[in-house]
Amino acid sequence: MSLAGNLKTVSFPDILQLMxxxxxxxxxxxxxxxxxxxxxxxxxxxxxxxxxxxxxxxxGNMLLRRGKITKGDLERAITLHKQTGRQLGTxxxxxxxxxxxxxxxxxxxxxxxxVYNLFSWQEGDFVFHEDSAPKNAPFLIELxxxxxxxxxxxxxxxxxxxxxxLPPDDVLLALARSPKVNRDEIRLSVEEFRILALxxxxxxxxxxxxxxxxxxxxTCRSIYSLVxxxxxxxxxxxxGEKAEQVDEEEIILSIIFHLFNNCFFRIRxxxxxxxxxxxxxxxxxxxxxxxxxxxYFPGVDPASDLMPSFDKFLGAVRAVPAPIRYYKLxxxxxxxxxxxxxxxxxxxxxxVFRDALLRVKKEISxxxxxxxxxxxxxxxxxxxxxxxxxADKVVKMIRG
Length: 400
Hints:
Strand content: 5-15%
Order of helices and strands: EHEEEHHHHEHEHHHEHHHHHHHH
Helix content: 55-70%
Shape: globular
Oligomer: single chain
Structural class: alpha+beta
Number of strands: 7
Strand order of the largest sheet: 1-5-2-3-4
Largest sheet: 5 strands, antiparallel
Radius of gyration: 24 Å
Number of helices: 17
């Protein structure tokens, strides 16, 4: 089986589903300029995953961060592992530091973290090497791929809600001095308790993620819970170089420009996966909405030379009177996005509509992560989700 492409046009969940339904055996390699991950399959199920040049995924580092091993023991194990050529997991068992069941459990967590991380990748080249087997796997752990798809998709939806609450990256977090809860009502999960122990008023969100033994998603989910339960608070901002004065309107317009172009690109490629690139029905439908400011949102590949100029878009927007420019722009974009999603349902049915909706939802993650305060200030997130909800409501009404 020859399978290769880019995640811009074929999403990671789609690839996993293809592996599962086809009961494929081999290795899926996914990489960008700076990251590379491999997922191994046997008869459609995931049996191993690894990261190249990513220390956060290494077995020894995971054990160290989880407090399962001392730094000295790990260094001795690594030395012996290099001398003998035996896998680190096997070496740790040989040294009587762990039994096979303990190593297997940590490896399972490692594999899950690697695979779930790939759900958030918006781009990256992939290629499937059929019948290849992992070379450096101490043990193979079988995970049901369909269950992984369901969990990964659930995490994407949950991640949307989590990111709405997470503090900016330069904020220091501390334990709340006067928690606004009744002591009898406080209930902490094991994960939340472990993260609470790391919060000392001197760490930011990125630093907590780096120090946490739980992985990024579980760490952020725990911080989300601690925030909404008023158990942690802001202790100030991390000192750094004084930020230069920035044009906030230009920043939010840049976010809107790239966010909606990417959304329309995801919608177009979703249709093309079903109907092929030569189909003109959807293109003709979408084109009727593109006039004025909307002509800057053709939904082309963001990396293509055909991508409109942001500078020209910025000039066109600023030609609109300031009091109404944001509302005029967002009104047009919301209408175009909702119309395209509803047309996908009419043209291709509920399954493809749901797929398009999921792909579009993922596009808000990056703006939220990098410009959370500004996105909230302009209400971009609320406008975006309300549009998706309206499209979903219309589809539900039509389906009865």
